[in-house]
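Milestone M4 deliverable, item 7.
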Amino acid sequence: MSKLIGKISQKMKNSKPDQILSFGASISHVEGLIPLTIGEPDFNTPTHIKQAAIDAINDNQSHYTDSRGIEELRKAAVDFVARKYDIHYDADAEVIITVGVTEAIFDTLAAILDPGDEVIIPTPAFSPYFNCVEFFGAHAVEIDTSKDGFVLTPAALDETLKNHPKAKAIILNTPNNPSGVSYNEEEIKALSDVIKKYDVFCISDEIYSELNYEHEHTSIAKYIPEQTIVYNGVSKSHAMTGWRIGVIYAPADIITAIKSVHEYTVSALTANAQFAAVEAFTNGRDDGVKMREIYRIRRDLLHQGLTEAGIESVKPSGAFYIFAKIPNRFGDDDFAFCRRLATEAKVGSVPGSAFGKAGRGYFRLSYATSEDNLKEAIRRIKKFVGEN
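Output delivered:
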C-alpha cells in the first residue's frame, strides 16, 4: 500500500463502488449463468450508422472537435427532440454532447451543487444519481414510490419539496431504470405544476425515451423548459452504448456552467463516434422503433413467466427492465436472494437495494437479451422458486 494513501481526497474515501457493477462482477464467475443484469441492448449498431463512422475515419475526421460537440451533431440532436417530443433548443447555445449520460450526470451535478444542498430522487432509481450527489457533498432525499406502483405522485413531490427547503434539484427518469415505469403526458403535466412552484432544477433523464410501449414519450421540458435539464442520447435507442454519446439540453446560462465542467473533464469527444451519432439522429431517427417492438414481445414473455412463477411485478411500460418482488418466504434481503438465484439457478439479476431504499426486497431483470435466453431463465426461476 502506498504511504500516501492517507492523503487521498476525503470525497474518495467516502465514495462507494457502484453496486450494479460490483454485484454483476461478483457473480460473473458462475458457470452457465444467464446474465439478466446488463442494461444494454443486445442488438448490434445498425449498419448505416457504423458506415458513417467508417466514412468519417476515411475522411480523416481524427482531430479535436468543438468541446460542445460538432455542429452537425448538435443540430441533429436538436432536430431529433423537436420532431419527436416537441421540445425546442438552440444548437449553438443550449446543447452539449457528452460521453454518455453518465458524464452528463456528473457534469450537471458538479455545476449546480454546493455542499449541504439536497437533491430529491424518487426511488427506486439509477444508482449513479446517489453516488454523484454524495460525491459533491450534497445529500439525496429519497421519495419511496413503491406503494404507488413506482409512480411519483404530485402530492408526494409537493410535500417533500415543502419539507426540504435546501433542495436544489429533483431527478426524474422516464421511462425508469429499474422499474420500467414511464409517465404519460397527464402525469408529467401534473408534476410540472408542482415543480414550477419551487426554485429547483428538474433534471430529466430521458435516455429510454424511444422505448415507451403504452403511450408517446412526453418530456417535462415541454412545460417547464426554463427549469429543466434534459438528458438523452443514442445508447439505448440505437444500440450504441459503446459509442458513448449523450446529450444535455438546457437553457443557455445553465449550459454555460455545465460546459466548463465538461471541458475540464473530457475536452472533446471522439470525432468518428460523433459522425455516427449524426447518422443515428437523422437517417436512423426511427431505428429505435423497430427494436422497441422486439422488446415488447420480450417484456410480455418475461412478465408472464414471472407471474406463473408466483413472482409479482409491475408490468413495465418502458425501457427493458422488470422490477420484481421477492416472494415473502425468501425474506427481503435482496442481495442474498440474488446471490442464491445466481449460484443455484444460474440466473443473473441485480438486487433492488442497489436502486435506493425503496428497492429493498425486489430484484431487477433485464430483458435486453434473446427470447431463448429469457425462456430458459424463466424455466430456471420457476424451478428455483418451486423448490424453495
